[in-house]
Design brief:
The protein has eleven helices and 16 strands. By secondary structure, it is an alpha+beta fold.
């Protein structure tokens, strides 16, 4: 039986979305294979375990002192293999509370999807489900991400980026530079997902408002050329290394100009996560375009050194038929299980795959050498000057 920790929450704008994804994993994990248990990271960054965390009502007015909750921490030490009790707000190794053989990271946004949490698990040598440190960090930052897409020769909409300090110190200059891209424009915080902080601008006044909002969420702001009445097409990829399985394409449906946070998670059956969103699967596009999108999805998955399941979002210009890569989601909402179910892969089986690839990645890591013997310390002890050591 594998002790499978499901991590969710954290200090992120997507905190609530993460809770929904985490509870979905707990509900669907195969109980004959896994002792799956919740690990909640609060808005203040504290870690908790306890059976109460399985109930979504616990999070409405979260009380860290509630009976049945235990503060824990994960030591960044290989071989610790578990969660330890934290007392008095400070970490103290007063004993292992529970074993942790593998982790499913149901994290969205900063402090979880961006490579920081992945780095902790790398230090601890515990297998985890998401992309590694590099892929996670690159996939979180929309500005760097767009630059990489361009370097790969993929179609990307024109854009510019600005610093929050530039916007506050000389807003007129930023407005002038941004507007040169041509309206409509989309303004996005560099490191947020789930449409949080994103605004569409059709004139200078709405551009000003959008920049103000984005600057409140991030110090780096992306301004991107928009498409009139764009069609969104999404495609997922599951795997590790060269073992990949691309999903069907989907076309989310929305009565708004673009999918807001509320569209995605709070309309209708919000507790069901991304599955509750109205969508067409497969997307009503040609076989040729479907294959092109699936091929680009696999290419991005491999280039970003992804692991587990990711979703790539595309924008199609309905008038011209041109398709542009919009962004990569290294931990997609609801783990994009709804894109694989029509292919015969159930959510429970997708979780099995996530665990399988997590272990494979750790095994591969252990095949690489990290130790290198040198004479630097021996010479230093003999009093050799540093510049002589080179």
């Amino acid at each position: 039986m594998i002790n499978l920790g499901v991590l969710f929450g954290s200090r992120a704008a997507e905190h609530d979305v993460s809770i929904v994804s985490g509870l979905q994993i707990l509900e669907n994990a195969d109980k004959s294979k896994y002792n799956a248990f919740p690990v909640y990271i609060s808005r203040s960054g504290e870690w908790f375990i306890g059976e109460r965390l399985r109930d979504i009502k616990t999070y409405r007015n979260f009380d860290p002192e509630k009976k049945g909750l235990t503060r824990v921490f994960l030591p960044p030490v290989p071989g610790a293999n578990g969660l330890y009790k934290a007392s008095g707000g400070l970490f103290s190794k007063s004993g292992k509370v529970c074993g942790l053989d593998c982790a499913i990271l149901a994290m969205h946004g900063m402090h979880g999807e961006d490579g920081t949490l992945q780095g902790l698990f790398e230090l601890a040598d515990i297998p985890y489900s998401s992309c590694g440190v590099t892929g996670s960090a690159l996939g979180m930052d929309k500005i760097v991400m767009k630059g990489l897409f361009r370097s790969m020769g993929l179609p990307v909409l024109s854009s510019k980026y600005f610093l929050r300090s530039e916007w506050r110190n000389d807003p007129e200059k930023v407005l002038d530079e941004a507007s040169k891209l041509g309206f409509p424009l989309f303004i996005k915080p560099a490191n947020l997902g789930s449409s949080i902080g994103i605004a569409k601008a059709s004139d200078m006044e709405s551009l000003r408002r959008g920049l103000d909002v984005a600057a409140g969420f991030d110090r780096r702001i992306l301004v991107e050329k928009g498409i009139d009445k764009p069609v969104e097409i999404n495609c997922a990829c599951l795997g590790y290394d060269r073992d990949v399985m691309v999903s069907l394409c989907e076309q989310p449906s929305s009565w708004e100009e673009f999918l807001t946070f509320e569209d995605k998670y709070t309309r209708g059956e919000g507790s069901k996560g991304m599955k509750s969103l109205s969508r067409m699967i497969p997307a009503p596009i040609s076989d040729e375009l479907t294959k092109r999108i699936q091929d680009m999805t696999c290419e991005i998955f491999r280039f970003f050194e992804c692991k587990g399941v990711v979703r790539i979002d595309y924008l199609m210009d309905k008038a011209s038929g041109d398709v542009y890569v919009n962004e990569i989601n290294t931990i997609p909402g609801s783990f994009a299980f709804y894109l694989y179910e029509p292919m015969g892969l159930k959510f429970r089986q997708l979780i099995d795959k996530l665990v399988e690839f997590a272990y494979k990645a750790l095994d591969e890591k252990r095949e690489s050498g990290f130790a290198f013997e040198s004479e630097i310390l021996s010479k230093a002890m003999l009093g050799v000057k540093p510049n002589k050591l080179k």
